Each structure stands twice: as C-alpha cells, then as structure tokens.
Amino acid sequence: MSSPQRPGTKRKSLLRVSLLAPASVATCVLVLQAHTAAQDYLIEESTDYTSNGCESDGIGDVNAVTSSLRTALEADSWSGNRFLNPNSWPHDVIEACASSYGIGGTTPNGLDSTFADTRTLVVFAGHGNQGRLTFGFPHNGSNCRVYMEPNMRLGSMAGNDAAYGMWLSSITLKVSALPDGPNWQWLRQQFGFNNSPSIGANEPRDFFNATSSADNSDAWLNQMDGNGREPVVLTHSTTESACWALHDSARLKADVTLTPRPGGPACEAGQPAFYHCYEWIDL
User: Fold this and answer.
1) Is 246 within 8 Å of 163 (Cβ atoms)?
2) What is the chain's alpha carbon radius of gyration, rounded to the nearest angstrom?
3) Has residue 251 been placed in a domain?
4) Which candidate in 86, 169, 253, 277 could, as Cys together with 18 as Cys, close a disulfide (CB 3.0–4.6 Å)?
5) DSSP labels for 131-197?
C-alpha cells in the first residue's frame, strides 16, 4: 500500500504496510510487568573484520559511525556503554534465559540480561544480512554471526527492558523477509535498511537529535534517505491502529514512549499474535 508523501520529504516512493504477525505454535505465557521509562543505551560496534576469525564471508572493514551518537546520548542525560571491536561480544545481544539460544563456544548462553536487554536503546553497527548481525570478533570460541530468530529475544524473556533497536548494517530489516527474525524481538520499534547502505559518521547522531521534534519514523527516513539507500522503520503493537499511532508518535530524544513494550513471553514461550507496521523508502 502506498501513501501520500509527507510534507518536506524528498522520497521517491514511500510505502506503508501493516500486517498481523502470526502467533507461535508454542504455548504462550505472558509476562505482565510494570516498567518505567529509562534513558539508557548499549552500542555494539564492529569496524575491524580483518584476521580476527570473522572474515569467512569475505567482508572488509567498515568506518565507525557511533562515536558522535554516544556523545549526543550522553549530552541528553542518557547513560550506557559503547563497546568497540574486541570488546563488542556477540553474546551481549543473545537471549540469556536458556542455552538453546546460544551460538556455541564456551559461553553457550547469551548475556542480554546483563547487557542489551537491560537498555532502552540497543544499537549495532557493522556488517549484517537478512535478520542477522555480524560481529568483527568472536567471544570465547563462538562464531561471529547472530541470527535474530534463533538467537535473540530483545524486550522479552530474560532482561525484557529493551524497547528500540537500531541496526546500522546491511539488509537486517529486509522488507521481503518480514515477518522474520526482527519480528521475534519484542521491541516497540526497529530502525534499519532494506539494502546495503553507506552510513556517514554523524548520521546516527543526527537521527537521534532530530527526534527532539520529529517522530522516530520521520527522523530515520529523512536522515537515511539518499545515496541509493532504502531505510526501514518497523513498529510493533497489539492492533493495527495502535501500531500506526505509535509509529507516528514515538520520539527518542523527546522522551515520548520510552517504556518497554509490555506483554512479552516468558523464557522459551511462544509469542502472541500482534500487528507489525513498517514504512520504508522503495527505490
């Protein structure tokens, strides 16, 4: 479905789609917990993919893009961590509640209940693929690829405090594959790309700063438009109308809807059906 171009944009084709994501066939157990809004973040960034044990895909090094984002977050009273290269571990974003989510090595369980799923905003920068994040260094003998569907459950299960995911990587939010790994994340919104983008060093910062007055969706699409890129914003909620209402109102820097998404499943339980809606620039 297409929609009119919003004022002030320069988009070739702006598409808005909403779909009902099917519930898992597993028994669903809801976790209803009270959450408070928090201004905290985790940034995982890989720029070095040379001779570290993660070059099996023939991928090269990339530029750093999150240093100024961290500065902007801290200036706005957010707190958190930015882990770079050997300090950025695949297990930081992997579900901690059971070893079945792990990716091998001597640390079979994830560490998201200590790191990613204890923060409102989770950012990954580096190489990626469809529903996948590729780290530049393994951790304790693990491999470097984290697949969202089998490995990650941000916003639910152990930790369950993450609300937003920013994937500064190639085709992690591939539109033709939705629903896919990203829909297993119990997040309010995810920001990513339908193709392989080049990203400037200050663009993630500029996106965050723009959310002081613009909603997250407009800020992401406006900032990441151009240079042949196809930015995507994916939003989740209980009904179609609620999905679009959140999609058009949430603002990170303005502190609008920073609380985690409620009602996520307990450890290894299936998800209830929900709506996801997304907007992307189709070139």
Assistant:
1) no
2) 17
3) yes
4) 277
5) TEEE-SS-STT--SEEEHHHH--TTSTTT----EEEEESTTTT-GGG-SSGGGGS--SEEEEESS--
Q: Could you tell me which residues come within 8 angstroms of residue 219 by beta carbon, excluding any fewer than 6 positions away?
A: 207, 210, 211, 251
The CB density around residue 83, as the number of other CB atoms within 10 Å, is: 15
> Residue 253, CB half-sphere, CA atoms under 13 Å: how many?
23
Burial class (CB in 10 A: 0-12, 13-18, 19+), 2: exposed
Residue in the structure block whose two tokens are 């929900």: 274
Torsion angle, alpha carbons of 208, 213, 217, 222, to 10: -80
3-class DSSP assignment, residue 14: strand
Range of the domain at 159: 14-281
pLDDT of residue 57: 74
| Amino acid 18: pLDDT | 62
pLDDT under 50: residue ranges of the chain: 1-13, 23-34
- Asked if residue 38 is part of any domain, the answer here is yes
Q: Is residue 2 part of a domain?
A: no
pTM of model > 0.70:
yes
**Per-residue confidence (pLDDT) for residue 27, from 0 to 100:** 27
Backbone angles phi, psi at 193, to 5 degrees: -140, 150
| Domain membership flag for residue 105 | yes
Please tell me the distance from the alpha carbon of residue 217 to that of residue 251, in angstroms, as a whole number.
9
Tokens 């989740």 belong to 236
Give the domain CATH number at 63: 3.40.50
Residues 6 or more apart whose CB falls under 8 angstroms from that of 158 comprise 95, 96, 97, 110, 112, 113, 117, 267
Counted domains in the chain:
1
> What is the edge-to-edge ordering of all strands in the sheet holding 127-129?
127-129, 132-134, 145-147
